[in-house]
């Protein structure tokens, strides 16, 4: 969504509890969450080093949006009035860092090519932990075979509709047309991290991959 960001004084920001809490949760995520740490390292390796005070912004958002990636400024927006728990912050930061990674490594046309947006939303839903079993149970959604893919598809469509004025049919068509290729694009994780343990293993593998490449 469009941002109408107005600069706030240091005093106002210091007194605003949501802002302080957002900053503290963000710091904890970037320092301890294996999903975020892997993505930060991958962005750095791709030539897009992330600086906390430059590339993240805690702001108030309309509606129920949790965060977004502002491609014009290469900045991740965190909705301080809608993110209340650390686990939620972890997922939002990871989701948006995947968009930042895609923006860094490819010429993504976020505004004019809905297939580009669909692909990044599929990858974000698939790799960020949005569709883990525990998260789906918390949403009272249960399924057996193929449920992860169903969750990824549904959340990608939902994300497109939240940020673009297109019909549901247009969003569904874009997601379906690129789903297989984008669902199977697992960079930089190399696997679908279904838990923090998976993400930690992926992070170790990523570090070892870099060391191996450096010795070639």
Automatic annotation (TrEMBL):
Pfam family, one: Peptidase_M76
Keyword hit for Transcription: no
Family annotation (InterPro entries): Peptidase_M76_ATP23
GO cellular component, one term: mitochondrion
Molecular function in Gene Ontology: metal ion binding; metalloendopeptidase activity
Keywords, ordered alphabetically: Hydrolase, Metal-binding, Metalloprotease, Protease
Keyword Nucleus on entry: no
UniProt-listed Enzyme Commission number(s): 3.4.24.-
One biological process term in Gene Ontology: mitochondrial proton-transporting ATP synthase complex assembly
Family according to the record: Belongs to the peptidase M76 family.
Protein name (record): Mitochondrial inner membrane protease ATP23
The organism of origin for this protein: Platysteira castanea
Gene designation: Atp23
């Amino acid at each position: 969504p469009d941002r109408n960001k107005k600069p706030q004084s240091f005093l106002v920001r210091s007194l605003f509890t949501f802002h302080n809490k957002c900053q503290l949760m963000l710091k904890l995520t970037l320092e301890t969450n294996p999903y975020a740490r892997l993505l930060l390292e991958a962005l750095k390796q791709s030539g897009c080093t992330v600086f906390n005070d430059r590339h993240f912004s805690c702001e108030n958002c309309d509606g129920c949006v949790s965060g977004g990636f502002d491609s014009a400024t290469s900045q991740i927006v965190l909705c301080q009035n809608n993110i209340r728990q650390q686990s939620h912050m972890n997922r939002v930061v990871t989701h948006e860092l995947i968009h930042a990674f895609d923006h860094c490594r490819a010429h993504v046309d976020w505004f004019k090519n809905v297939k580009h947006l669909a692909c990044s939303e599929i990858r974000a839903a698939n790799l960020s932990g949005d569709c883990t079993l525990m998260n789906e149970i918390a949403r009272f959604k249960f399924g057996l075979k193929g449920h992860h893919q169903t969750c990824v598809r549904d959340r990608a469509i939902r994300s497109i509709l939240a940020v673009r004025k297109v019909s549901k049919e247009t969003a569904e068509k874009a997601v379906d047309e690129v789903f297989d290729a984008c669902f199977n694009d697992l960079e930089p994780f190399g696997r679908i991290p279904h838990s923090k343990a998976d993400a930690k293993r992926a992070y170790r593998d990523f570090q070892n991959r870099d060391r191996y490449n450096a010795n070639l």
